[in-house]
Amino acid sequence: MSDPGRVNLEWALSLLDGLAGAGLEEVVISPGSRSTPLVLGTLLHPRLRETVVVDERCAAFTALGMAKAARRPVALVATSGSAPGNWMPAVMEASESGVPLLLLSADRPWELHGCGANQTTDQIRLFGAHARAFHAVSEAADDEGQRRRLRSLGRQAMRQCQWPDPGPVHLNLPFREPLVPSGQLPQPAECAVRPLFFPSSSPPPALLTRLLECFSAGPGLILCGESSAPLESIPELAEALGVPLLADPLSGLRFTDQASPNRIAAYSRFLASPERVEELRPHWILQFGGLPIAATLRRALEAWRVERHWVVDPRGRRVDPLGLGAETLAVEPALLADAIRKLRPNREEPQWLYRWRHAEGGAQAPLPEAGVIRRVVEALPDGSLFFCGNSLAIRWLDAWSGEGARRIAIHGNRGLSGIDGNLSTFIGMARRWRGAGRRLALLGDLTFQHDLGALANTDGVEAVAVVVNNGGGAIFDTLPQRRLPHFEACWRTPQSLDLAHLAGLFGIGFRRVEKSEGVKEALEAAFEAGGFQVVELRL
Q1: CB count, 10 Å around CB of 329?
Q2: What is the pLDDT of residue 531?
Q3: Residue 493 burial class via C-beta count within 10 angstroms: exposed 0-12, middle 13-18, buried 19 and up
Q4: Do the bridges between strand 101-107 and strand 74-78 make them parallel or antiparallel, or are there none, so unpaired?
Q5: Class in CATH terms, 205-361
Q6: 3-state secondary structure at position 516
Q7: Which of 3, 91, 301, 436 has the most CB atoms at less than 10 Å from its CB?
Q8: Angle 333-222-441 (CA atoms, 0-180°, nearest 5)?
């Protein structure tokens, strides 16, 4: 009679073989009993590297950050019951931002469902529409034919989480006790890696002809927001067309290894002027990725109501939150940009770009937050990672970051723009960041507090988190809620935590700065100290 614990382990290893054979390398594990076959399989598998995070919510956002940094799928493993439910916020964010995650939830066998068994709940299609696919895996069987099917399912899941619409894929795996094999543990052979290949969406000739005709009708704009597809070729396209490139900080195009005369970064400030908006009215707009963050740009788009507005999204998603009637072009950004450039389009008259450059040159930066952003950006050399939290932090960065000819990868969780899990996402990215520069996060005090548990996962991470403590949700000071009764208690929500105690609690470094002028010195000291450091800036 076969050992049931060994059957469970071989079942888990078969799935992991399929995943690893299709390119999976990273697994984030949260401890539990029912998930033992998956955890043990990960530890034994020669092609998988594990990261252990106790809190499942932090684990999911850590995996999200690792997947963002590596631009490849990362798997999550958790036990049954409420454990995988804690993944939900990160799964929602991954779904909206197009980040590939593999969700491997352990479950109880069928006979323990619906009878009051402990740590047992309905995990079927737990993540609903937020998962690109769901697979209810059968219980472990001592059958090589079934294990072969499971390996094939692993490859299928790796494909589904990356194409055609990247995002989370959920596999639910029930295991019956015993969960630990008897005797000596096996030493799995190294599986062969057979990379997956995905089709690229090239622009058809008819589309190129139509675009060139529209480009000739009058001056236009290129907008670049956050995109799951690389946008490195877009600055050259803007130069070929002779038009301004409005680069959102999360587009990856504000700080690149080459200067660009067409790159505009201060538009969120000068488009606050209705006169400027009218003066800079374009005839067409070509948008790559999501809509940029700036509220002033969004108001300008609503005022312009440009008829010829295209959004390039290889996933084919509708990206038109303002209801402008923008048309989706389901093509790869790089292929479209290269195809247009090869056709040698007529360049726009220089006066059009000069108007935008002149407007940007006149946008002054007198506010204190401008100094904060400037000092933070100046502290980052070439090859650095900059993670920016939501609410005011990203808006400050948008307004005051400027642009430059050094590579700074700016990231954030803008799929749903939540303040949850930002610190864990940054820690996950910092763990797998391959750039030669520094790793820094800029977070508001509520965003930081919302994810304090992430600080338990900083062992071995060299990074700095700057916490802007402005007494709670200061973004609400700019919204109509500020006039409501109980505004302070229910919206602004100032906190009374003394962050200095974090140093002893989590074994991290801590510095407090009372004025923005001290940020530069504090950052240099923090990076010099090494390890994970927190710099609190009280405003």
Answers
A1: 21
A2: 97
A3: middle
A4: parallel
A5: alpha beta
A6: helix
A7: 91
A8: 80
Phi, psi (degrees; rounded to nearest 5) at 183: 80, -165
CA distance 452 to 412: 17
To the question of domain 4-174 being in CATH 3.40.30.10, the answer is no
Cβ atoms < 10 Å from Cβ of 492: 19
Residue 477: what pLDDT?
A: 80
- Rounded to whole angstroms, what are the CA distances from 370 to 321, 397, 537? 29, 8, 14
pLDDT at 494: 87
- Return the pLDDT at 479: 86
CATH class for the domain made up of 368-538: alpha beta
Which CB contacts under 8 angstroms, 24+ apart, belong to 45-48?
A: 45/13, 45/16, 45/17, 45/20, 45/188, 46/188, 46/189, 46/190, 47/20, 47/190, 47/191, 47/193, 48/16, 48/20, 48/24
In 168-179, which positions are buried (b, 16+ CB within 10 angstroms) versus exposed (e)?
Answer: bbbbbbbbbeeb
- Give backbone dihedrals phi and psi of 226, rounded to 5 degrees, phi first: -65, 135
Q: Enumerate the CATH 3.40.50.1220 domain ranges in the chain, comma separated.
A: 205-361
Domain with CATH 3.40.50.970 in the chain: 4-174, 368-538
The model's pTM is: 0.96
CA pair distance 409, 386, nearest whole angstrom? 6
Q: Is the peptide bond before 292 cis (omega within 30 degrees of 0)?
A: no
314 three-state secondary structure: coil
DSSP characters for 253-292? -SB-SS--TTEE--HHHHTTSHHHHHHT--SEEEEESSPP
Name the one residue in this structure whose structure tokens are 């950004």.
333
Q: Tokens 């596999």 map to which residue?
A: 171
What is the residue-averaged pLDDT of the chain?
95
User: Omega of the bond prior to 195 within 30 degrees of 0, cis?
Assistant: no
What's phi and psi for 490, nearest 5 deg? -110, -15
For the chain, count helices (H), then strands (E): 19, 18
Return the number of other C-beta atoms located less than 10 Å from residue 121's C-beta: 15
Lay out the sheet containing 439-444: strands in order across: 408-411, 384-388, 439-444, 463-469, 532-538, 509-513
pLDDT-flagged residues of the chain (< 50):
1
- Rounded to whole angstroms, the Cα distance separating 283 from 304 reads 9
Could you tell me what percentage of the chain is helix, strand and coil, using 3-state DSSP and rounding each to the nearest 5? 40, 15, 40
Helix (H) / strand (E) containing 365: none
**Residues 414, 390 contacting (CB under 8 angstroms):** yes
